Model the fold of this input.
Amino acid sequence: MVPHILFCKECNKFTMKEKCPDCNSKTLSTKPAKYSPEDKWGKYRLKYKKENSKKE
Done:
């Protein structure tokens, strides 16, 4: 299996492990979601993105 670069949201660091070696939290994939012109969940994703960008 080819290792992938993962991201820790807690400490904002990149790693290749499933758990962050610094804070021991779960890491996430850095790959974006696949694009589809018939994206049936796109409006919900856009709504979520707009709501969360206002909070920052």
Summary: The radius of gyration is 15 Å.
